[in-house]
Amino acid sequence: MNIPHFDYKDINLIPKYSEVNSRSECDTSVMFGKKIFKLPIVPANMRATINETLAEKLARDDYFYIMHRFDVDIISFIKTMNKKKLFTSISVGVNQDAYELLYNIKKEKLEVDYITVDIAHGHCHKMKLMLEFLNRQFPLSFIIAGNVSTKDATSDLLTWGADCIKVGISNGSACTTYPCTGFGSRGCQACVVNICATVAREEFNACVIADGGITEPADITKSIVLGASMVMIGGMLSGFFDSPGDVYIDIDNTTLPVTKWRIETLDSSKLYKQFFGSASSLNKGHNKHVEGKVMKVPFKNQSILDYYKYLQECLQSSISYGGGKNLVSLTKVNYIIKN
Question: Where in the sequence numbering do the catalytic residues fall?
Fold first, then answer.
């Protein structure tokens, strides 16, 4: 079946009459679950984009995060966040180790505000079992599930007990699922977000996270216009000095790590950090079923939170062009599909 499609680059948003006196008046906050966050943005739950230190920093400043599930002590992380009275947001898989982790969380009587069931192909039997389990054992947690890229998958996961759906397959810059398999929403992510968000909103009064394919700030705005409540970003939020990972430099065909005290003495244009997909061999630790790659991201001598301020200004401008004063107004903006 050939479904009409479009992507972010194919959309022009249509301006509306504005009554705001200053773009700084525009409110970019969003209610997600039971909490209000300053921006509808979340770093991808990948080792190359989020870690414990950054998660704590984001939580303190009222930004949403989802902690990844790879080689991390989730129990210790939750205890630390609970002790500091910061909200907790974790990822789990669908195999036996995930159930054991969740049983231990229950045994320790730890508070978990958000649980993301994070697997490459979310429309599957194991996802159904996990969502049913979470609804029984963690009825107070906000459950996010994905990833999916179809109307039927969105409907099924919400029926099985998810509160929010993560939409997007094979869109990430470090993802190789599409060239490896031919499946996914690459090249039509914007259309898929719109389809899945419409189902979630109209049939379940639920929400979606647009995950992948975000290459510029305007794509965040377009995702909100198309119905997403949150937008997940990977590559755009990598490479900052407080992003996870070490800084490297290539000298005479040799890759060398750069210590913090040496950074200021080197040409920053030659520095980089690694950005890699969750299904890459670097993240997996083996070469079986690899669907991700390792990329060099130019080092940015800037904090992610500083970049968040820029993204907020972009969203405020978008809201003013859309004729409103908050993010909700963007959901009423029309657009032109150019192709």
Answer: 175
Confidence at 1, pLDDT banded by 50, 70, 90? very low
User: What's the gap between Cα 11 and its chain centre?
Assistant: 21
| Residue 115 in this model has a pLDDT that exceeds 90 | yes
3-state secondary structure of 93: coil
CATH number, domain 8-241+302-337, options 3.40.50.450, 3.20.20.70, 2.60.120.10, 3.30.70.270: 3.20.20.70
How confident is the model over 215-242, as pLDDT tens digits?
A: 999 999 999 999 999 999 998 998 898 9
Residue with the larger pLDDT of the pair 329 and 300: 329
Q: Where exactly are the structural domains of the chain?
A: 8-241+302-337
Torsion of CA 76, 51, 211, 84, to 10 degrees: 50
How many helices and strands, by DSSP H and E, does the chain display?
12, 15
Sequence-distant (6+) residues with CB within 8 A of 18 are 320, 321, 323, 324
Within the chain, strands assigned E span: 11-13, 30-32, 35-37, 41-43, 89-92, 114-118, 142-148, 164-167, 207-211, 230-233, 247-251, 254-258, 271-276, 294-298, 335-337
Dump pLDDT digits (tens) for 59-71. Answer: 999 999 999 999 8
Distance, in Å, from the CA atom of 213 to the CA atom of 208, rounded to the nearest integer, reads: 15
